[in-house]
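C2 calcium-dependent membrane targeting
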Amino acid sequence: MMENNGKQAVGLGLNHSLQDTFKKFRKEKYLLSLILHNAEGIEPVSKYPANASRRNYRACVWIDPESRYETDEVVGGIRKVAFDEEIRIQFNNDYGIPLETNFLSLEIVRVRSRCDPGPSRGSVVVGRLRVPLPKVPLVKISRRFGLVRLVNGEIVGEGHIGISMKVIPFH
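Structure:
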C-alpha cells in the first residue's frame, strides 16, 4: 500500500478486490429472477372510495422500455394486491437490452377502470418505482420498496411493494 505523509491508505485492498469481482461478472451470461409479492397501501379507500372492492391491477416491469413484462391481472383487495408472480428477464436477448443498464422500473396499473377519465383503455398508473439491479450474482435481495404516483401534477409517496431479486446464470 502507498503511504501518504506517514499514514497508510485504508481500504484500497478491499476496493481492488471488489473491482476484480465485478469485472468477472458478465451480465450477458445471467438473467434477473424477479418475484413480485404483495403491494400495500395503493389507492387507500380513505382517499379513493369509488369502486374500492372491484379494482383490477397489473404490474409492468422493465429494464429496457422497449421490452416490458406484465403480470397477470389480479383482483385487488381492500388492503393489499397479491401479485405473487415470478418474471425472468435476460440481460442479453433478442430485444437487445443494454448490458450497462443498472435499474429496474416498475409500474402498478389499475386496469379496466370505469371511474377514471383516463385513456380509452381505462388504465391508470397508481404506483411506480425505479430500483438498482443487484450488482453481485447469486445474492438474493428481498425488500419492501416505496411507490410514488402523480396526483394533481405532484409526485406523492403512496404504497409499497415487496420484491425479491436475484441475478442467476442463464442456461
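Confidence is low (pLDDT under 50) at residues 1-15, 18-23.
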